[in-house]
Amino acid sequence: MRDDTDLQSLAAALLDAARAAGADQADAVAVSASSLSVEVRGGALEHAERADGTEIGLRVLIGGRQACVSASELSRDTMREMAERAVAMAREAPVDDALALAQPGEFAQSHEGDLQLMETAAPPTPEALQDSALRAEAAALSVNGARMIDVAGASFLRRDMYLATSNGFANGYGRSSHSVSAVAITGEGTAMERDWAGEGRVWAEDMPPPEEIGLLAGQRTVARAGARKPPTGAVPVLFDQRVAGGLIGHLLSAANGSAVARGATWLRDALGEQVLPEGFDLDEDPRRPRYSASRPHDAEGLPTRPRAIVRNGVLQGWTLDLATANKLGMESTANAVRGTSSPPSPGVSNTRLTPGTASPEQLIRDMGRGLIVTSFLGASINATTGDYSRGASGFWVEGGQIAYPVNECTIAGNLREMLMRLTAADDLPEWRTHQVPSLLVEGLTLAGN
Prior knowledge:
Helices cover 23% and strands 36% of the residues. The radius of gyration is 24 Å and the shape is globular. A hairpin with a 2-residue loop joins strand 2 (44-62) and strand 3. Helix 1 packs across helix 2 (76-92) and helix 3 runs parallel beside helix 4. It is an alpha+beta fold.
């Protein structure tokens, strides 16, 4: 693992190479990552993997044109060749007058210390990860009806990033990540069903015990035994906490500046309009301590800050980086994200939807007859119209109670209409990038038997 000084030197060397090659402006990213993962099966080690590496990325801008290149070979010759190739590519690229670097007066000044993104304790050993995975597996198998464990695993990742721009921004930060998961199986042959549970945290001390994760995986799996198709019809659908974040994710994608600038979104004319029922707020806070998606600045060096995406059901603004903000005549919301081989683009982190006051069990009783969705398979979503269709599995509800598990069904509707018919439960999850409670949506089309 390279330290911050090493990454800073790599980014600075890339900028020097870009200047020498004739770039008007440039930004450089250097990223190092170290990961360790362990998988167990049948009480024994199944697979262990360690990976360490460093990547560098360069973006050059010449007369309203841009090009990006990346490499994992870190010699000065490689950097020189990268810069020359990027400049040559940029000179052939189409002109985009919206391209720009952040100005010095806009740069983030604070660092990540208060965000606590890097655990201070020593990384876990392979033996410690194996112990966590074995404990999760044993807990899953303790559930009556859990026939076997497909896989149980534990992992640790450390990632460091440094960003430098030709007009003066230079800063980096790192983050750590711990995770434990288990996938269990019940039944045999064509009656086989599986489910899983997993958790991830920046700090190990925030992780739940492996036994809790494994037990949940076993319980979820056994509950799916004997799944069959539900009846066809128009029914209320409860999106379980596990999948409800994806429903709100479609709203976030539709409010992304890239889609808005292209006109390829079903929210293109919805700024300032009602997109959720009254009482719903959807907020973003990229500076939440110890959360895996937190960051002190975005990928263009702008300081991150909390913002309202939806307030009392009304769409407040788009998610923007500098280029999309310039195209739309607005200011960046400091939401640029990027990899080493791509230019910045808008992306969100740490969103939270207002929870309701009723428990999921109360919503199930109130829905009477309908579907609970716990997982999806495949999707057909029209980004321009919002037409929505997804394969689903979960549980059928009769008389306000779960009757039996279901699979091989499809739910369909239109996102704009669906999101206006939401009722939220009170089970807002912690430690999620998208904190969204279970959501009840009335009147979806269900295709089953």
